[in-house]
Amino acid sequence: MAVDAARSEEGFTSARATRVMAAACRAAGLDDTGAELIRLGENALFRLSSVPVIVRVARGEEWLSTARTEVVVSRWLAGEGFPSARIIEDLEQPFLIDGHPVTFWHLILEGDRKATYGELGGVLRDLHSLTVPESLALPSFDPFDKQALRLDRAVIPDDDKAFLRKRWRELQDKYAELKFETPKGPVHGDAHVQNLMVDDQGRVILIDFEAFCYDHPEWDLMVTSVEHYSLGWQTDEQYADFVGAYGRDLYDWDGYRTLRGIQEFGMTTWLMQNVQEDEETAAEYRRRIAGLRDDDGPRDWRPW
Q: Which end of the chain is more exposed for a tag (fewer CB within 10 A), N or C?
């Protein structure tokens, strides 16, 4: 009980994630000397300097089933020859270290450019055309997964928590009324352009299978359409390239507004988990919560 209390009080900080990463490396027989924290979001990502490996540390044991899904999806996509992140095969994964699932991935050596929105549309088109084998059990897309946990643990004002809980219930009601017209298939679940990497051979590679599921493809189109129409993060030309490559503009669907609300809510609660890290993160959270409180107001949110 004392350990759990201390863990809850500390939260998932960069310092805690570093300690878990080091312990996981010891368990895996890898050297963590000089490991670099490259991202702290839903997971903490570390790049090892001793070997070309990325270590992903999840926030808590509640993410264990998610980590297991990531591992099996990586293996399936590898078998399909799909350009995607690869798990380290000679390790039994995921590890569970002090209540945190940990996975180890091959480092992707980046090239000299970023992926384009046209490439994102093409990758999603190809992904959605794959047939999921019966042996691969994937969850359905749950837009509210972990939201209650995020709100319970968030270090934010009580008024913000009350507002977010009310918005959460409203979105659940709207979600229940959605009618999809497309068949279900493999869905990435967090399909933004930052989840593509271009390696040093020029190959475009899909990464981050945390939200991978079996559901309607609209969930993957939601991300870029909201970033364009609501947040203005792409030019008209970039978005046109995305739509042209995929073959559909989600904005034309009458369920778009509901998906917009779900996406913006998720973007805000994702960021609020790290408000204690630094003032820059806290300031961006304040921008996002202010935007949620004014549905029709402009969004000055920044990519994170």
A: N
Helix, strand, coil percentages in the chain from 3-state DSSP, rounded to 5:
45, 15, 40
Alpha-carbon span 269 to 261, nearest angstrom = 12
Confidence band of 8 (pLDDT split at 50, 70, 90)? very low
Give per-residue pLDDT as tens, 145-174. Answer: 778 888 888 889 999 999 999 999 999 999
Q: Which of 180, 192, 168, 3 is nearest to 99 (CA)?
A: 3
C-alpha span between 86 and 77 (Å, rounded): 9
d(C-alpha 157, C-alpha 135), whole Å: 45
The per-residue pLDDT for range 19-69, each reduced to its tens digit, is 999 999 999 999 999 999 999 987 999 999 999 999 999 999 999 999 999
For 1, counting Cβ atoms within 10 Å of its Cβ (0-12 exposed, 13-18 middle, 19+ buried), the class is exposed
